[in-house]
Amino acid sequence: MTTGxxxxxxxxxxxxxxxxxxxxxxxxxxxxxxxTGVQQGELGLLLLCLGIGSLLAxxxxxxxxxxxxxxxxxxxxxxxxxxxxxxxxxxxxAWSLALALFLFGATIGTLDVAMNIQxxxxxxxxxxxxxxxxxxLFSVGGIVGAGSMTLMLWAGLDLVVASLVLAAAxxxxxxxxxxxxxxxxxPSERDAPxxxxxxxxxxxxxxxxxxxxxxxxxxxxxxAVMLTSGGGFxxxxxxxxYAAFAVAMTVGRLNGDRMVQRWxxxxxxxxxxxxAALGFLIVVLAPSPWIALAGFALIGTGASNIVPVLFSAxxxxxxxxxxxxxxxxxxxxxxxxxxxxxxIGFVAHAFxxxxxxxxxxxxxxxxAASGWSAVPGAGGGAxx
Length: 384
Fold this sequence. Notes:
80% of the residues lie in helices and 0% in strands. The protein is mainly alpha-helical. Helix 3 packs antiparallel against helix 15.
């Protein structure tokens, strides 16, 4: 009989595998651009194919998980991701790369939703806070995936061989998770409808997730520009902003479950939103890039546990079946990621990047103010 500990470990492994696969694509981007000969504008359109694949797959995943259980969906999508990933290293034309990115996005999107549905069910059975730790393993996977791929390429390993090694590593992690993933859907999910529009608390939770994903995407896409545009950092140092953000987020998530147990999810949303807003303001007003680095770290610390708490709230709300709610919230959140770079770029072009980041600070204040409405009683500490 599968124990609670085995279920928790297998869920963490699923998150680790997803983080590894998703982040390993980043070091391949320059190679893909050189191989296909596309310009930056065309590359942006190609990268959009990954997001489109995810967005189309996510709404369907909740229905599949409710019908067939999380284990089948996680393993099928995860292993499908492993099969598609090497194609990103060999696609010779823009059209073939677009198709590979679409399929990669679809498998990643399916895996993302299915593992979060599993996480919600496991957390409910545990009757305590686990979601931040699960998402912390995704962040660790991101560091492992991008770092290992970068090291292999730096060491001179062939691009295709490196992608096969990474795909094999992800597959091994998934195989290790497989025996203890949830085989059967939750009894309350078996009669879930095939489709349902987001409603009630799900709409608010999805909107807040979208704001946080927008902020995270802005740091990923624009932190280097913020640090280098004033001449304080060189182009080679520009990545330090996102590194500070990512490390702080990982540390925050790995310690988040204890904070949720102690303060409750709603208080953590309040504190996290305020912390992230302060971080954005520091980045905007910093007199030196080194102080701006501290601001990016504060953003990572504040944002680290907001999305995990919101996913826990999605599993606790009564307006929709949990599987459909997770699908809807993930889809709405990813829409924020897709819209983010263009929206920030538009505002930055019209009014300046500092004002765009100040707007993100306002968004984080909105998250902080909405915490009590979005997750009344969510999180381990608030349930007890």
